[in-house]
Design goal:
By secondary structure, this protein is of the alpha/beta class. Helices cover 23% and strands 33% of the residues. Helix 6 packs parallel to helix 8.
């Protein structure tokens, strides 16, 4: 192991915990989506926006599943997940009082720049949770952040749609459905879908983001930074949009993972570095990367 690698390994030591998390609640939503709150105080105390956890879905299934953290409390974390296989189906059958093994928090977090206080948060599908987390962090931070979230889904959203009372310049008046949680925090959000959901923009998240950005002045654009999470094609489109407007953009990549702690390198992606292209592990080198460095 090189000296640099040793120093990095040392820096990561004692930052990831394994604990038996107690399921506090689990709420089901259409599209086989679930929000689970887990009492995991060590993870909650160290988590940052963009981190994820590696969870044992059931005692009968040894392989864990990586899931983004959506919210954090004093001693709990919340995750949002959609059933896509046997493991998450088993996890969905857990009940309050059950225990799941939680490994986390894992990964490099989002790092908002105070020089860019107007944050555009773009989440697609199961990429919505990290956007909720960073929105919560921004509203609690003492900085002068102003966040605007654009969330997209092609299945029913995992929350009841609400008509927003928070206006957004540059967005049509009839695009007014929002996420109630963000609304309650005073953070404007707008929803997009191709499924014709009421009050949602009929198109992709990048379509609506592009419309909004096109209404901003040069000075206003100079204060914008983009954060995004979602499927890879969506993230590439977000990266292209950011490049078009010369905006800094951080993306949280989604990849299949085995160990989730950097040992297997099964989640490696190609990243441009000052020394040339290199393979980086999404679990510990990411999942958050500068969008301009990702080799799409």
């Amino acid at each position: 192991m090189t000296t640099a690698a040793q120093e990095k390994a040392q820096a990561n030591r004692d930052t990831i915990f394994v604990e038996d998390g107690e399921v506090v609640s689990i709420d089901a939503f259409p599209g086989e989506q679930f929000i689970m709150r887990i009492r995991a105080p060590r993870c909650a105390a160290s988590a940052q926006p963009g981190n994820f956890v590696h969870i044992t879905c059931d005692e009968s299934l040894p392989m864990r599943r990586p899931l983004s953290i959506m919210r954090v409390g004093d001693d709990w974390i919340e995750i949002l997940y959609k059933i896509v296989g046997h493991g998450l189906r088993l996890l969905s059958k857990k009940k309050s009082g059950d225990f799941v093994s939680v490994l986390g928090p894992i990964g490099q977090p989002f790092r908002p720049s105070p020089d860019r206080p107007n944050t555009l948060l773009i989440g697609g599908g199961v990429g919505i949770p990290p956007m909720v987390y960073i929105a919560d962090w921004l509203r609690q931070d003492k900085g002068s952040w102003q966040a605007f979230a654009i969330l997209g889904s092609e299945i029913p959203f995992p929350f009841d749609l609400k008509k927003s009372s928070l206006p957004v310049d540059g967005v049509a008046d009839d695009v007014n459905s929002t996420m109630p949680l963000l609304e309650s925090w005073g953070i404007p959000a707008r929803l997009t879908s191709l499924q014709g959901y009421e009050g949602c923009h009929d198109g992709y998240v990048t379509d609506l983001a592009g419309q909004w950005l096109s209404t901003l002045s040069k000075d206003e654009l100079g204060k914008v930074e983009i954060f995004a999470c979602g499927p890879t094609p969506m993230l590439k489109a977000v990266a292209d949009l950011a490049a078009r407007y010369d905006l800094p953009c951080q993306v949280s990549l989604e990849e299949f993972m085995a160990c989730a702690v950097g040992g297997c390198a099964g989640c490696a992606v190609k990243i441009s570095t000052p020394d040339g292209e290199a393979m980086k592990r999404v679990c510990v080198d990411g999942p958050v990367f500068d969008a301009s460095t990702v080799v799409w």
